[in-house]
Write a structure and sequence with these properties.
- The complex is a heterodimer of chains A (105) and B (296).
- Chain A contains four helices and five strands, in the order E-E-E-E-H-H-H-E-H.
- Chain A has 105 residues and is of the alpha+beta class.
- Chain A has a single domain, classed as Arc Repressor Mutant, subunit A (Orthogonal Bundle).
- A three-stranded antiparallel beta sheet of chain A has the order 2-3-4. In chain A, strands 1-5 form a two-stranded antiparallel sheet.
- In chain A, strand 3 and strand 4 form a beta hairpin.
- In chain A, helix 1 packs across helix 2.
- The radius of gyration of chain A is 14 Å and the shape is globular.
- Chain B has two domains: 93 residues, no CATH class; 147 residues, Phosphoenolpyruvate Carboxykinase, domain 3 (Alpha-Beta Complex).
- In chain B, helix 1 crosses helix 5 and helix 6 crosses helix 8.
- The N and C termini of chain B lie far apart (54 Å).
- The chains are: A alpha+beta (105), B alpha+beta (296).
- Chains A and B meet through strand 3 and strand 4 of A and helix 6, helix 7 and helix 8 of B.
């Protein structure tokens, strides 16, 4: 899937996160595959921003602000990483905000 | 020594995790060897039953093509062992039992001082066994386990006082081993079953056992390297998790509960990597780090 700016990424069921208190890299564990992944720096920041509420656009704005870069320069990397995470089964695409609105109506 | 026809010899009971283990055999030589090698695992006299009993039957066959067999609770484990492999295999079965009793079992040795334990974590030939034995024999540090370090829900490592597997080129295999072999008939029998790697009870090396589970406050990743000078450096939590996860088979087998316990362990203990050319240099480094360490 190609991620759109209005999509809302969700952490998949059965995926756990270890954020060490010493600030070192984030560890993500997939209980379904019984495998783990290490997310350094920007990857950890993107992962931390995936809360099931924010769209790709909002998430990108948040990460861009944290790293003091323009959102247009980072959104491509973020959607690319989301694609990788989705291929690994770590994230799923939830309904976009507009779609969510229609469901709620 | 010879075995009388149809005679049965018993080794144990041994306390492994939550099980009492009894080994029966038709070989008096094997009973002597195993009784000596596994002596530190003996269930304390008067201790209440563990609740689970596991029975091994290790048999020497007269048919030369079969040689030795090992059964556990009547089920075959190995059916064609050579004499020089049977004691090592019996030890491997005890390791397996320890791992079965606790999903969060790390490939590590464990030692303790006061109320603090250090895990010496590493793959085979990293030097963890020699380091653990040296600390116990020469630094007065209590021995908890080798090869299998089982971590409970409170981050404590359980005692599994199996013998140390000592190779002939190990510093532990010099004077003490020769002395043991020449002064103990049981050790002599054990040596015949272990022409290469010897299984040495830590108490036979002068070490002291720690009988109770102990909070882990230090994680040590030793690397023996004869070509390098002594070095020690702290590891961050992510590096520590990465190394420890690779040596915890239960993570793939049991998943989330083991992951959670490893994360808690990494958060609660400091971690250092120690590279050393001689165990005599590494032991004071580990001792000092363990004495400094505090539960987080």
């Amino acid at each position: 899937m190609t991620w759109d700016s209005t999509d809302t990424p969700h952490v998949s069921d059965g995926v756990a996160t270890f954020r060490p208190s010493d600030g070192s890299d984030t560890i993500v564990f997939d209980d379904n595959a019984r495998s783990w992944f290490r997310l350094p720096d920007t990857g950890a920041a993107i992962w931390a921003a995936i809360d099931g509420q924010r769209t790709v656009a909002q998430l990108s704005t948040s990460v861009a602000a944290a790293y003091d870069v323009d959102v247009d320069t980072i959104i491509g990397d973020i959607t690319s990483m989301l694609g990788d995470l989705q291929d690994l089964g770590l994230v799923t695409a939830g309904p976009s905000q507009s779609q969510r609105g229609r469901v709620q109506l | 020594m010879t075995s009388a026809p149809n005679e049965t010899f018993t080794v144990g009971p041994l306390r492994i995790g939550s099980a009492d283990v009894v080994i029966t055999t038709n070989s008096s030589d094997f009973a002597l060897a195993a009784g000596w090698a596994f002596s530190d695992l003996a269930t304390p006299v008067g201790a209440p039953s563990a609740g689970l009993t596991v029975a091994f039957n290790t048999v020497e066959h007269t048919d030369a093509s079969v040689r030795w067999s090992v059964h556990r609770d009547g089920e075959p484990c190995e059916l064609e062992l050579q004499p020089d492999a049977v004691l090592g295999h019996q030890q491997w079965e005890l390791n397996r039992l320890a791992i079965e009793s606790e999903p969060t079992s790390i490939h590590a040795a464990a030692v303790a001082i006061d109320g603090r334990a250090a895990l010496l974590i590493g793959s085979s030939r990293s030097g963890k066994t020699t380091l653990a034995g040296w600390l116990a024999a020469h630094h007065g540090i209590d021995y908890l386990s080798d090869e299998v370090a089982s971590i409970d829900t409170d981050g404590r490592v359980a005692p599994f006082s199996r013998p140390l597997g000592v190779r002939p080129d190990s510093p532990l295999a010099s004077t003490p081993l020769d002395r043991l072999i020449t002064t103990s008939v049981d050790a002599e029998a054990a040596a015949r079953f272990m022409p290469d790697e010897r299984l040495l009870p830590v108490t036979a090396l002068g070490g002291r056992l720690r009988p109770s589970s102990t909070p882990v406050t230090l994680l040590v990743f030793p690397t023996f390297d004869a070509e390098r000078t002594l070095s020690s450096r702290p590891l961050d939590a992510a590096d520590t998790f990465e190394q420890i996860a690779q040596l915890t088979p239960g993570l793939a087998g049991f998943g989330r509960p083991v992951f959670d316990r490893l994360c808690a362990l990494v958060e609660s203990a400091e971690a250092i990597a120690v590279r050393y050319p001689d165990v005599r240099q590494a032991a004071p480094v580990v001792t000092a780090a363990l004495e400094r360490s505090v539960p987080r």
